[in-house]
Amino acid sequence: MKKNQKNEKTTGRVKLHRSFRRSYREDYERQTELPGLLSHIAATFKIIRQNFKIFLPLIGLIALLYISLVGLMSESTFQEFKESIDNTNKELVSGRLGNLGRAGLTLVGTVTTGGLTTMNDAQKIFSILLFMITWLVSIYLARHLLAGHHPRMRDGLYNALSPLISTLFVALIVFIELIPIMFVVITYQAAVSTEFLKTPFYALVYFIFASLMTILSVYLTSSSLMGLIAVSAPGLYPLTAIETARNLIAGRRIRFLVRILYLFFWVALIYIVIVLPAILLDILVKGAFPWLNDLGIPFVPFVLLIVTVFIFIFISIYVYLFYRQLLDYKDDFYPLVTFKRKKSKKIKEAKKTNEPA
Q1: Which residues contact residue 169 at a Cβ distance below 8 angstroms, ignoring those fewer than 6 apart?
Q2: Are 275 and 302 in contact (CB under 8 A)?
Q3: How far, CA to CA in Å, does 251 sit from each of 190, 210, 245, 318?
Q4: What is the Cα Rg of the chain in Å?
Q5: Between 301 and which of 73, 206, 297, 344 could a Cys-Cys bridge form, CB atoms 3.0 to 4.6 Å apart?
Q6: Which of the residue ranges 6-10, 12-16, 317-321 would you say has the lowest mean pLDDT?
Q7: Count of CA atoms in the C-beta half-sphere (13 A) of 221
Q8: Distance from C-alpha of 2 to C-alpha of 351, rounded to nearest angstrom
Q9: What is the 3-state composition of the chain as percent helix, strand, coil, each rounded to the nearest 5?
């Protein structure tokens, strides 16, 4: 405890749980004033809404680059997916599943299978780069907006990409830390195929093993995800960013995980509110006018892409706001005031000052 107190006084950092020595409660209790979960979400929405003239072109640009470099799921593929759901509906529930149920299954299947498009290796690399660019630009814009500046979208594109290589390096570390969960998924598939889990004792042993591996990955990635925010600061090396993030998240992991789970809920809600009506509209309109199927207009894939880009920007700003709170920035979470250039008022004020007394 004394060592930790001395280290915090000299370096401002707290090193916890780095050895098998006992950690005292006084060492890892860290008071952090955080806003409520709903306030956090509301602040994220408000930042985007008040500055939609900045973020809307960013969404359009990323979507255009994605369509050009990666591609969009073709309408024929989407129609085949819907037809498979219709066939399942007829065979299993005798067609009792209504349009809303079919639209819901289509949404779940499209999102969970990565239904933006079928990608090869080159397209996967382009998609990763595009979403990394979106991540960095969103954080850059949010940082400057919260600082009271008035950046434009092009400022983010020109200035936010300097730590791109460092961000990719941190993302690689996150991928390595997720290997235990991937190993659990692979072993689970093997256990199911070999009927290993039918024995209760073996099932219990595997459950303990899977739980430990999952906890290990969650523990490691919780700090590295914050490192993706920290590394966006210019001139910060990847390992330094991860070390800084570990210090910030120490004693606060549970709060961070609760907010991540709450974020997942809102992401699912956004998909349901926006994409589900689009799928339902597509089913109804093309059911009433079958000749529209021959045109091959990818309406639903395009809506899905736009919503996915928006959600990625939303996630970036959401996590960045939490990062600011860990740094003890005294934001009221409604810090932005819409900046409007009123040239007419400035001209009038200038004329008044120039008028002779």
Answers
A1: 231, 238
A2: no
A3: 36, 24, 12, 20
A4: 25
A5: 73
A6: 6-10
A7: 18
A8: 66
A9: 75, 0, 25
For the segment 19-28, what is each residue's pLDDT rounded down to a tens digit? Answer: 666 666 655 5
CA distance 250 to 31: 11
Structure tokens of 119? Answer: 């990608």
- Cα–Cα distance between 95 and 89 in angstroms, integer? 5
- Residue 244 pLDDT > 80, yes or no? yes
Q: Quote the CA–CA distance of 163 and 131 in Å, as a whole number.
A: 14
Distance between CA 243 and CA 247 in Å, rounded? 6
Location of structure tokens 């400035």: 346
Q: How far is CA 131 from the centre of its chain?
A: 10
Residue 187, amino acid: T
| Structure token pair of residue 213 | 């591996």
- Closest by alpha carbon to 66, among 123, 115, 122? 123
CA separation for the pair 343, 217 (Å, rounded): 54
Q: Where are the alpha helices (DSSP H) in 13-74?
A: 25-28, 37-50, 52-69
Q: Residue 77 belongs to what H/E stretch?
A: helix 75-92
Distance CA 311, CA 305 (A): 10
pLDDT in tens, 45-99: 999 999 999 999 999 999 999 888 887 766 555 666 566 666 655 555 555 555 5
Inter-residue contact 326 to 248 (CB < 8 Å):
yes
Question: Is residue 190 classed exposed, middle or buried when 0-12, 13-18 and 19+ CB atoms within 10 A define those classes?
Answer: exposed
Extract the tokens encoding 227: 């490192």
- Which helix or strand (DSSP H or E) is residue 281 part of? helix 253-288
Other beta carbons within 10 angstroms of residue 26's beta carbon come to 9
0.70 cut: is pTM over it? Answer: yes
Residues 85, 92: Cα–Cα separation, whole Å: 10
